[in-house]
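Workshop exercise sheet. Pairs work together: one partner reads the sequence aloud, the other fills in the structure field after running the prediction. Swap roles for the next sheet.
Pair: D.N. / O.F.
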Amino acid sequence: MTHDGPARILVVDDVQENVRLLEALLTSRGYDVLSTNDGASALELIATGKPDLVLLDVLMPPPDGYAVCRQLRENEETAVLPVIMLTAALGPEKARGLVAGADDFIAKPFDHDELFARVQSLLRIKRYHDTITDLNRTLDERVQQQVAELARARRLQRFLSPQLAEAIITSGGESILASHRRQVSMIFADLRGWTKFVDAVEPEELMRVLGEFHETIGRLVTRFDATVGFLEGDGVQLFFNDPIEIPDAPLRAVRLSCALREETGQLTPRWRKRGHDLDLGIGIALGYATCGEVGFEARSDYAAIGAVTNLASRLADRAMGGQILITQRLYAEVEDDVEVDPIGELELAGFQRPVTAFNVIALRGPADLPA
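Structure field:
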C-alpha cells in the first residue's frame, strides 16, 4: 500500500445517498474511506489522499468518470491505480470504460458480496504491484550505491593498496583524505643507471623494463598495505601510517624495502643479460608530514608533504645500487629488528646540517609481515 494502516478507498458519486451507502459498507469491513461528489475534487483527493482503489461513478458533471479515468492513466503515479466503475448498464458504458482504462465494473444496483470480492481482488493486485515497485526501487538504490562505491574504490586505489581502499569505503571514512598532520615512514626508491638506459634503448624495451619494475612494486604495495605517493618512471614514493594508522610503520617500511631490494635483485640479472646496467637505491625517513588529497576533481593524488619527504628523497639519491639508507630517527625505532652498517654523516641538498645515516644490511626476522 502507499501508506500505513488499512487500505484506503475513494468513493466518487454525485448522488449523496450512494456515497453514504458505500461509506457504511466499506468502513464496516475495516477500510479507510474518502469520498467526494464530482470528478474535479476526486482528482485532487487522489493526489493528496493517495487512495489504494477508486470506486468511480460514470455519469457525473464534467469531468465525468471516463475523463477522470483517462487522466489517471496518463499520469505515471496513478497509471496502475485500481479503478472500479459504477455503471447503470454494462453495455456501451463498459466498452467506453475499458477504453478509458477502468479495471473492473459493477452495475447499479450492486450486490454487496460481489462488490467486496472485486475490491479485495484489485487490492491484492495493487499490493503485489506496490511490493514489486518497492523492490525495484530498493534494487535501484543498491545498484546506485554500488556504482558509487566502485567509483570511490577506483579513485582510492590510485594511491592505496586494495585492502586500505576497501577499509575506507567500508567505514565510510573518506573524510580522512582531508588535509591533516601525521607522522609517516617515508620510502623513496629509484633505479640507478636510468638516464643512460633511457638514452640507449628503444621505447618498447624501456616500457618492458618499467612494466617489470612496476609489477614488482604493485605486489609489494598490496602485501604490505603501503600508500602510494607517486609511481613515475624509475621512481616510486611509498609511505606508511597514513591515511590508516599502522603501529609498526617504521619496521613495515624497512620490511617492504628489503623485499623490494630482494625482488629487484632477481630482475637485475635478467636486465643485464639484455644489456641494461640497472640497480636499485632506497631511502627511508621518519617524521611528520602534511597529508591529504591534492589536485582537482578530474585528477587527484594523495600526498605527504614535508621535510620527511625531502629527506627520504635525498637519501635515495645518495644510495648506491642495493643500498637502503635510513635516518637515525627511524633506526631508533627498528634497531632490534635490523642489521645495519653506519654510513656516518651525509651532506644532503636542502638540509643545513649533516644527516646521520645507516645502510640496512638485513632483517633479523622475516622480510614479510608476521602471520
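Discussion prompt: Residues 112-156 form the longest helix (45 residues). What would you look at next?
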